[in-house]
Every structure is written in C-alpha cells, then in structure tokens.
Amino acid sequence: MLEGIVVLELSQVFAGPLAARLLAEMGATVIKVERPTGDVSRQQLWRTGGRSGYFVQQNRGKYGVSVDLRTPEGVELLWRLVERADVLLDGFAPGVLAKYGFTYDTMAARNERIVVCELSALGRTGELGTVRGYDQVGACYSGVAYTSSDGAGPSIMPSVALGDSAMGLCAYAGILSALYAVRDTGRGQLVDVSLVDAYIQSHSSNLEAYSISGGRINARPVGGQNAYICPAGVFETPDGRELYIVAMSNHEWVRLAGCIGRPELGTDPRYDTTEHRIAHRQDVLDLLDAWLVGFPTRDDAVAALRRAGVVAAPVLDIGEVIDNPHLRARGTVEMVHDDVLGEFAVPGPPFRLSGSARSPLGPAPEIGEHNHEVFARVGGLSDEEIDAYVASGALFAAPPAAEGASA
C-alpha cells in the first residue's frame, strides 16, 4: 500500500521505531539512521550474543545506516537522504537535529514534499517544549500515574509502555494523514506528536468529571475498583488466580445479580443505579467475593459470568498471553525468527486491512548494515564516494552480533 514511500527513521527505543515498523509493514522503505553507538534499545534485555530482543521487536524490516553527524561529511550524507525522502521521523531530544541544521523549515526548503514527524515528551512548543522524557514523564503530566493509584501508596507508573505505544500509533496516523494531504497539495507538513497528548486521550471521563463537579471529583480507584463504576475491578478465585468483573450499566447489574443467584438485588433500591452501587460498594464486593468462593478455578467463574451475559475476563500472565489460542490465531501474538535470538514472541499488528496484505518483514539491521545499499540506491552515490565517506568516519558499520551467552 505504501510501496515507493521512503521513510527516514531517526529515533530510538519504542515510539518512533513502532511507527516506522508499521509503515514498513504497509510496504514503505524504512531507513533507520543511527549514530555510531546505535539505538540505545540495542542495550536492553533480553540479549543473546549482544543482540537485543527489545530492539529486534520494533526494528524488523528496516534498512540500517549509521551516520556520524558530528562530521561535516555525515551532515552531507543525511542531506542526500532528506532530499529524496517522503517522511522523516525525528524521535531524538528536542534540538538535537536542529543543532546540525535539520529543522522542518530547512528540510522543506530542499524537499517541499517531505513530511516531518517530531516526537517528544511534552510537545516541542510552549514553556515545556525542551523537556526530555520517557513514557513515565507523559504518565505524570497527563494525570494517568495519579489516577492509577488509590492513594494508599505512591502513584503508580505504568509497567508497560502505554504512552510510547499510543504515541507510536498517533505518529503513524499523523504521518498517513500528512501523506494523504501531499497528494492534493504537493507539499508536506510538520506532524507534532507527544507522549502527554497520546496519554491524555486515555482519560475516558476524568477531565470532564473534575471540571463539571467543580473539582469535587479527582478520581482515583477505590480498593482497586473503578471510581465511577461498581463493580468494576479485579477479584480472586480459590485457586489464587484473578479475573475482572464489570457491570457498566444498570441492565448489566441485573444480569450479574441473576448470575450470582440474587435476582432480587437487580431492582433493590440500594443497588439499582450506578450511584447507589457506589454508595454501597463494599456490600457489592462482599457479595461477589462470597459467590466466587464456590468456583474451584478462575476459568470456571469467567465461563459462568459469560453465560449470563456479564462482561468478565481472566487476568492472564505473560505466558498465558503468549499461549492463548485466540490471540495466536488472530496474530495478536506472533512468533518471529532471528538468526541470533532464535524464535520468540512479539506483539502482532494493531490493525488488519481486508484488502491490503502486510509486507513481510526481514530481520532487524545491525548498525550500518545497509550503508552501501542505501547510499547507492537512494543517495545516488558511487562506490568510490561511499568508500571515501567510510574512510572519513562519516559512515560507520558495526560487526554483526553473534550467537553467545544470554545477557
């Protein structure tokens, strides 16, 4: 679908590499431009023979070049690619590329069709536009860390990259929107995506609840349960495993009451509205805990709830996620092969198109692995010119990782 689109990815770790990988899956030629030390995620666990599964997961299917922008020749090389690219993804700290003369305005002056996507923690405009940060900085500024804790302990930082993954998807959407506009206008544009903007989309009701209530509602979960819905949280079965149960609406509460053998509670004035159930939250939780004691396993309880039309789900651990037949069959979890790491599980694509196939992704590149191929085919350089850039230190290539002991 995106065949012929050339993407320069100057980013590292998660969000930018994710957006670029999705573009590669849709057929774009993605060139990962790294400094000689490489993407810092190459150092992340788990590693075998110096090769990181973290890095491989997000960087399959890309061409890898390594350019030292600290040299004038390195700057020249990057300009050759910028002048021929459709998209540039800038995931470095604010000001890093500008230091070498690469801003949206300078790039657009030499390539009016280029779409430049800038990723940042808090946006690159405003008083906090120079703040650096990883996923958790977005969680802090968006209020997500605050609303994840019940206040009995410290605020809770997400243990997975919620903001980075959301920002990567936002970047992907923004880039596609800008590319669509290029067809009509012939001009690219700047796409500004930040962690805090991506994170704040996850507030389904917290901002408006606080505003409408005049600040009386500053929601945090209550004993692990949702502040606005009752019941909506995690429960335990006698086998020591957990499941999630929710009755979002009054008619769902009627179903749940019938499921636990107490149909009269469906219309009981203590529980017949969301507000009433929240006011009697502990009674509701005690009723469910007492009912769950009768099930030997988590999965038995989930099955009973689903038969009654109640929304419920098992809380899967990572091994269960990888082995889940539904997730494997859908490709939500897929197995990939790497010559060094072997076969391992990674997240599958977040969307599927009925009329467009994914492009098969090759292995993740080593640092500078495709220097010659990229600068010959895309950059238009001769073998002699490429050799001269290598000799000057502007182009760098690391030896390939080898099989070895796990890090």
From TrEMBL:
Question: Record's Gene3D superfamilies?
Answer: Crotonobetainyl-coa:carnitine coa-transferase, domain 1, formyl-coa transferase, domain 3
InterPro entries recorded: CoA-transferase_III_domain (IPR050483), CoA-Trfase_fam_III (IPR003673), CoA-Trfase_III_dom3_sf (IPR044855), CoA-Trfase_III_dom_1_sf (IPR023606)
**Assigned keywords, A-Z:** Transferase
Query: What molecular function terms (GO) are annotated for this protein?
Result: transferase activity
Which Pfam families does this chain map to? CoA_transf_3
Concerning SUPFAM superfamilies, the annotation shows: CoA-transferase family III (CaiB/BaiF) (SSF89796)
Against PANTHER family, the record matches this protein to: SUCCINATE--HYDROXYMETHYLGLUTARATE COA-TRANSFERASE
The name on file for this protein is CoA transferase
Q: Which organism is it from?
A: Actinacidiphila epipremni
- Tell me the lineage of the source organism: Bacteria, Bacillati, Actinomycetota, Actinomycetes, Kitasatosporales
